[in-house]
Design a protein that fits this description.
CATH superfamily of the largest domain: ABC transporter type 1, transmembrane domain
Largest sheet: 6 strands, mixed
Strand content: 5-15%
Number of strands: 12
Helix content: 55-70%
Shape: elongated
CATH architecture of the largest domain: Up-down Bundle
CATH class of the largest domain: Mainly Alpha
Strand order of the largest sheet: 6-9-10-3-11-12
Number of helices: 19
Number of domains: 2
């Protein structure tokens, strides 16, 4: 089971810290591997300078036996290091992925503020971050300190010859630091363009049927082409600079070897260096510059990872009401009373308020219909009561407790909302109903399906309740989807039921069945329903009319109907 992050932990540092034992072992393995590299250089130095001149075969055998042992241990250490980096990376990935899902699924601030494509691209960018935490990258960074250790050893063996790779190291670092801002800027631009491209793609796929019925496909295609061209142009430039840096590092290694050989030969001619020392210096120079070459090769990925980290950090900085549950009040058994006092809601970038100074008192068991023109605030009012939308000012209470202080789990246990647009998940009909109450039995599923007519729908499906639905349940009609979502809303037996145009896509026969059965089932439960359909008024005993976010009428159903009939007769 994946471990959940504590509320105070950083989404990335927390999982990394828990892998510190593996990271320490990885560092130890890297130290051992680099020590073995030094031993191999000293082996060659000894063979050329001691064994060959003295023709000591016994020494050669002993040295070679020792070197073979070193090679075996070097192999084992590399295998262990690879396993450690892979397992640590996988564990970090699992924890971070789990925290992503939890944060996004529980963060109401992401609803309507960011496009699906934008969020999905941000999460996909975690792959860039994983690349940096992959084996090759961790190994390269673990080997980085040994550049300076090898330079010291080079100086001890070859004296001034160590200046050649030393100068190359300094030169590559300076060029790398100079190029870094350019690559970083282009990586950020490519990431932004990638999000735009993904947003267009997700939007196109989500509205493919609508798009096919319109003439606007060229507009979306133009937007797609522009984002692809822009991202492609930036990526070409970013890869050019990244590849240039890699080529400089590789050329630096070649220049270093040539420089060491030329300088070494001159030192040998002046009897200041031995042949064995020169060969050892050539080997060590390659080992010295190898991590530098790997790092420059990874700098492009590192910048992409940095951009990804910043995007993910911004995503996690979007704190939600559910981010810290310690401050919530626990009320597992709420009553059905609701009180809204001077309530106002204004959506971001909106010129006017969706709700203004709303004052409503709802007794437990009361049934209310919300009427009004499009955009009058009916849906927003339901969303505030359900906890999906937070009010800007005023007070929203359930059972005399501020909704914003109620534990989200308690709110979901006692309040169910059926949104205007029915949304089904990929999975079976049964699984979609269970989203409302995962612990519901088959008997409960059948019981509540009979209330909404889903049992009749299932009878006409190839596999009944086990029929697999595709994404959004597109193979079902709008009315069938509404019936399933109503079932999903009532199966947890909420004290308060919120319905937003629940039967707008149903035929009259199914609608009458739902009205008849809901009327029996509701009894002592509280119902607040937004609707334009007169038939649904049979479920309520009170009518509230909204206009431009304000209450313009609030009366008993009988009086409202009588007044409306009188107005129509004039």
């Amino acid at each position: 089971m994946t471990r959940q992050l504590s509320k105070k932990e950083h989404w990335l540092l927390g999982p990394i810290t828990r892998q510190k034992a593996k990271i320490v072992q990885l560092v130890v393995a890297s130290i051992a591997i680099n020590i073995f590299a030094l031993i191999s250089a000293f082996y060659i130095l000894t063979v050329y300078d001691r064994v060959i001149p003295n023709e000591t075969t016994d020494s050669l055998i002993y040295l070679t036996a020792g070197m073979v042992t070193v090679i075996v241990f070097d192999f084992l250490m590399k295998v262990v290091r690879g396993i450690l980096t892979d397992t640590a990376g996988i564990e970090i990935d699992k924890e971070v992925a789990s925290s992503f899902f939890e944060h996004i699924s529980r963060n109401e601030k992401l609803i309507g503020t960011k496009s699906t494509g934008n969020i999905s691209t941000t999460i996909k960018e975690f792959d860039s971050l994983k690349d940096v935490m992959a084996s090759a990258t961790l190994v390269a960074f673990a080997d980085l300190p040994f550049i300076f250790i090898f330079l010291i050893v080079l100086y001890l063996i070859g004296g001034p010859i160590a200046a050649v790779p030393g100068l190359i190291v300094i030169l590559v670092i300076i060029i790398g630091l100079a190029v870094q801002p350019i690559i970083k800027r282009m990586s950020a631009s490519a990431s932004s363009d990638g999000k735009t491209k993904q947003s267009v793609l997700v939007e196109m796929l989500s509205g493919l049927e609508t798009l096919k019925s319109l003439k606007g496909v060229l507009l979306l295609e133009k937007r797609w082409s522009e984002s692809v061209d822009k991202q492609g142009s930036v990526l070409i430039k970013a890869r050019f600079w990244s590849q240039l840096l890699t080529n400089i590092a590789q050329s630096g290694q070649q220049v270093s070897q040539v420089g060491i050989i030329v300088y070494g030969v001159l030192l040998i001619m002046s009897a200041d260096l031995t042949m064995g020392a020169l060969i050892a210096c050539v080997i060590l120079s390659g080992r010295t510059l190898a991590p530098l070459g790997q790092i420059t090769n990874l700098l492009g990925r590192f910048n992409s990872a940095l951009v990804a980290y910043n995007s993910l950090e911004n995503l996690f900085s979007e704190t939600s009401k559910e981010a810290n549950t310690e401050g919530y009040l626990r009320h597992s058994e709420l009553q059905g009373s609701i009180k809204l006092s001077n309530l106002s809601v204004t959506y971001p970038n909106a010129k006017t308020s969706s709700l203004q100074d709303i004052n409503i008192s709802v007794e437990s068991g009361e049934k209310i219909a919300l009427l009004g023109r499009i955009g009058s605030g009916k849906t927003t009012l339901l969303r505030v009561i359900s906890g999906l939308t937070e009010n800007d000012s005023g007070l929203a209470q359930i059972s005399d407790v501020d909704i914003n202080h109620l534990h989200p789990d308690d709110l979901r246990d006692n309040v169910s909302i059926c949104l205007q647009t029915p949304f089904l998940f990929s999975g079976t009909v049964k699984e979609n109903i269970l989203f409302g109450n995962p612990s519901a039995t088959d008997e409960q599923i059948l019981k509540y399906s009979k209330i909404t007519g889903v049992d009749l729908i299932a009878n006409n499906l190839p596999d009944g309740f086990s029929t697999a639905l595709n994404e959004r349940g597109e193979q079902l009609s709008g009315g069938q989807r509404q019936a399933i979502t109503i079932t999903r809303s009532i199966i947890n037996e909420p004290k308060i039921l919120l319905l937003d145009e629940p039967t707008s896509s149903m035929d009259s026969q199914t609608e009458q069945l739902v009205i008849k059965n809901l009327k029996k089932w509701m009894k002592n439960r509280t119902l607040i329903m937004a609707t334009h359909r007169g038939q649904l008024l049979e479920l309520v005993d009170r009518v509230i009319v909204l206009d431009s976010g304000r209450i313009v009428a609030d009366d008993k159903k009988e009086k409202f109907v009588e007044r409306s009939s009188g107005n129509n007769g004039q």
